[in-house]
Write a structure and sequence with these properties.
By secondary structure, the chain is α+β, with helices and mostly antiparallel strands. The protein contains 11 helices and 16 strands. The strands form 4 sheets. The chain has a 7-stranded antiparallel beta sheet with strand order 2-6-7-1-5-4-3. A 5-stranded mixed beta sheet has the order 10-9-8-11-14.
């Protein structure tokens, strides 16, 4: 299996300058390759340029611009071209079924924050010397950079990436490992129902509160964004120091919320994995749940529109994004795989409307958001707990039906 590690690195002033130049030159390569694709499609009889054609030009580009493109790793530049190729493929893949995705855009220097090295030892080197207490990572054109390694790396390092987040720099490793030893059996199974009022409810009647990190930080974010909006929009090289500080403050607040959301997701998933051998959850279509409703033109008034519930949907979308369901489910599956646990997603339809006692399913069974009252047998319970019980039953049925 493949596991990722992320460590803070501490470059010197000159190394930080070189890392910034590396990002700048890879960004320039990305934008140039995108411009070439756009021009070829528009002006040369709709010709499509592929990754192989652009990768073959790298040797000439490096020879022509030795001081900028020629000083960096050839493999990392190929990885940058592959990133563009994946963006183009994703665009056309969404166009075919009739969607309207945005065309891949040019990247500003402040929006290009990662350089990938596809193989350890090719343009980079993860260096762990047994007799040296300081871990270092070497990048071509930068040198050996100190790493704040807070935990050991198990397995063979496969890929290395350098990433900038605000004023901090990180190295991201992927290591190939054998299958880890599974945890001891817990002797329990659980179903979970995810929501907004509570982050999740389990089939045992327990609840995990929704921390609402984004909502708690909204006042500070609003103040920081209002302070930023007072500055006129000018070119990056003409921005003042106060403007740069205002931008960094908004970005740092967003990063803090993201870290808090990830921390909560990791801790909640770890508790579920350690305490249960089997976890069932709803197979939520989060993208569809967050989609804005289509406008409704008013047939009697040209140019006017009828109410379509966009305001209430916007509030629900913000709450779903703040809860971070998708991130949590991704982490839950990854931790379950490492621990030898089983996680199954089930169809969420009618899980909160079906009575766990008599099996009667009706909309009237859930008179309020929290209350469940079966109109057939009179069973009452918390609606989220009922949903978690039904999710667990459906998950167990699906597990038994799966071929061995």
């Amino acid at each position: 299996m493949i596991r990722a590690y992320k460590f803070l690195i501490r470059p010197t002033v000159r190394q930080e300058q070189a890392l910034g130049e590396m990002l700048r030159d890879h960004c320039s390569l990305y934008n140039g390759a995108l411009q070439e694709r756009r021009d070829a499609y528009r002006h040369v009889s709709r010709t499509s340029i592929k990754y192989g054609m652009q990768s073959a030009q790298l040797k000439e580009i490096r020879a022509f611009d030795v001081e900028r493109q020629g000083r960096w790793s050839f493999s990392s530049q190929q990885a940058t071209l592959r990133r563009l190729d994946k963006a183009m493929q994703a665009f056309f893949r969404r166009v075919k079924p009739g969607e309207t995705p945005g065309y891949p855009r040019f990247r500003g220097v402040s929006w290009f924050d990662t350089v990938d090295f596809p193989k350890d030892g090719d343009g980079c080197r993860w260096d762990v010397t047994p007799h040296d207490p300081v871990t270092r990572v070497r990048f071509q054109g930068v040198g050996c950079v100190k790493v704040n390694q807070h935990r050991p790396v198990a397995g063979k390092v496969k890929t290395v990436s350098v990433k900038r987040e605000g004023r901090k720099w990180f190295v991201v490793l992927t290591a190939e490992q054998g299958q880890p030893e599974p945890l001891a059996e817990a002797g329990d199974v659980v179903g979970i129902d995810m929501g907004i009022a509570n982050f999740l409810a389990d089939s045992h009647g327990n609840f995990v509160a929704n921390p609402r990190h984004g909502q708690k930080a909204s006042a500070k974010l609003e103040a920081a964004q209002q302070a930023l909006s007072k500055f006129p929009r000018v070119r990056r090289d003409k921005r003042t120091a106060n403007h740069r500080r205002a931008v960094e403050k908004v970005a740092e607040l967003h990063r803090k919320v993201r870290r808090q959301r990830l921390d909560h997701a990791h801790k909640t998933a770890l508790t579920l994995v350690r305490g249960h051998d089997f976890v069932a959850h709803e197979d939520l279509e989060i993208r569809n749940m967050s989609r804005s409703p289509a406008p409704k033109p008013d047939p009697d008034k040209p140019g006017a529109f009828l109410p379509n519930g966009a305001a209430s949907q916007a509030g629900l979308t913000r709450s779903i994004a703040d809860a971070g369901w998708g991130v949590f489910l991704t982490i839950l599956h990854a931790k379950a795989e490492s621990a030898g646990r089983e996680v199954i997603a089930v169809d969420p339809r009618n899980t909160s409307r079906e009575c766990p006692k008599c099996g009667h399913a009706a909309k009237e069974n859930r008179p309020t958001q929290e209350k469940f009252h079966c109109v057939s047998c009179g069973h009452t319970a918390h609606a989220d707990t009922v949903g978690a019980v039904n999710v667990l039953r459906a998950g167990l049925v699906r597990r038994e039906a799966q071929p061995a």
